[in-house]
Amino acid sequence: MKIIVTGGAGFIGSNFVHHMVNKYPDYEIINLDLLTYAGNLENLKPVENKPNYRFVKGDIADRKFIFDLFEKEKPDVVVNFAAESHVDRSITDPEAFVRTNVMGTTTLLDACRTYGIKRYHQVSTDEVYGDTAADKGGCCAENAPLSPSNPYSASKAAADLLVLAYHRTYGLPVTVSRCTNNYGPYQHTEKLIPLMTVNALDNLPLPVYGDGSNKRNWLYVADHCSAVDMIIHHGKNGEIYNIGSREDMSNIDTVKLILSILGKDNSLIRFTADRKGHDRRYCIDSSKIRNELGWKQTVAFDDG
Questions:
Q1: pTM for the full predicted model
Q2: pLDDT tens-digit profile of 118-159?
Q3: Which of 33, 59, 84, 126 is catalytic?
Q4: Band of residue 4 on the pLDDT scale cut at 50, 70, 90
Q5: Which one is catalytic: 33, 59, 127, 160?
Q6: How many whole angstroms separate alpha carbon 217 and alpha carbon 36?
Q7: Active site residue 247
Q8: Is 42 part of the annotated catalytic residue set?
Q9: Catalytic, out of 53, 120, 129, 152
């Protein structure tokens, strides 16, 4: 089987490439990445010399490039991790998010339709559901209404709808996964856990939005990768699968845990003006993938 993994030099994408290259030595894994600030080939050092791995630099929104690549490679499966993903950056530059997340996805879908792939998988986010019943304590199942709060999550929601529309209109074999916040190796230092860790190690202030009470559901990246692996092999065409843990943590508690692990004092914490449109809580119901595909979380937050 030949699989194109887009965004495979980023945080989650590179972890997925590691997972697939090592688990399936008879598969051919092609890593397609534009190498923006979030992509780093150092992430791929452990697999770069594996015989079943190749890297290709390119832009998923470049239609000619993508069609030429598909004509040459004729992949069986496409897994799309490529995305602009930082909420703060989307607030200052929404257009870049629309270009990559919406137009890039459309380009991939058109290429998949033209070259008859066996499965296109869209890696999405729990943020498309918006503030998750913050006042009720509930969690969103896959059929919950989409209510994105910022340009990033709006662009991902638009991409999800396009993917599902291509299945309905053209019969394209697709699946979508929506995962909670990831953490783990190779994560960019603009994200909460690595940012707080690096700052704490250097005894720098730890900036925390608002009062830090915003809650997030954290999943170790290897568990996310195993879920996507399971979906592309056993998921049903046209279906959405939520991927989440059962561990809610407020941002301030996460920051305090990092400080405790590093033996640092809470006095490093600095509360800052809240992010525009900041969601108070994300929580998804992942019982579908657990019950239908047998996936389960293996790494607890404290251990991860």
A1: 0.92
A2: 999 999 999 999 887 544 557 889 999 999 988 999 999 999
A3: 126
A4: very high
A5: 127
A6: 27
A7: no
A8: no
A9: 152
